[in-house]
């Protein structure tokens, strides 16, 4: 066995170790991104589960505001049916707008603002909104890590060959949507 054969074997082993390391790193980041997206969907579901209780509480005080309740219900359904970060971001924008209108309606009913059930729901909703934002930041950080790793050398050489051909999508709002939801839903009464 000659020196050139030994060098060739060493080079092949090094390339295989690098490829294996890159593959494992991309798989790990891919899984963490999926887990982070799952965290977002859990929080969105939690919020969606709170909304019927909130709507019913407000309904008891504001029976003539049926269009607001219908809009909230429709926006909740769109959020629950959203597929992927882009659809979810669009649904989130609509949902935030309808929640603002719901809380605007509740402003007209002082007894409602003092109702303990409403206050409890408000606290839970605020907590859930905070968790959604934290989950969103974590998810977008994982997406950034994955996309960066996939595009940097030497991973970019192997990424396509190893099945990592596309970037992950960020869960972000468009410029227009950012402007509309720049003010958080007012839940402090």
Describe the model.
The chain is an all-alpha fold and 189 residues long. The protein has seven helices and no strands. It has helices spanning 3-61, 66-81, 84-106, 110-114, 116-151, 155-159, 175-180. The longest helix is centred in the first third of the chain and has 59 residues, at 3-61. The model is unreliable at 176-189 (pLDDT under 50).
What order do the SSEs take from the amino end to the carboxyl end, as H and E?
Answer: HHHHHHH
What is the strand content? under 5%
Taking all residues together, what is the mean pLDDT?
84
The radius of gyration is 24 Å
**Would you report the number of β strands?**
0
The major beta sheet can be summarized as: none
The name CATH uses for the topology is de novo design (two linked rop proteins)
The H-level CATH homologous superfamily, spelled out, is LemA-like domain
In short:
With 189 residues, the chain is mainly α. The protein is 79% helix and 0% strand.
Name the features.
189 residues, de novo design (two linked rop proteins), 79% helix, disordered C terminus
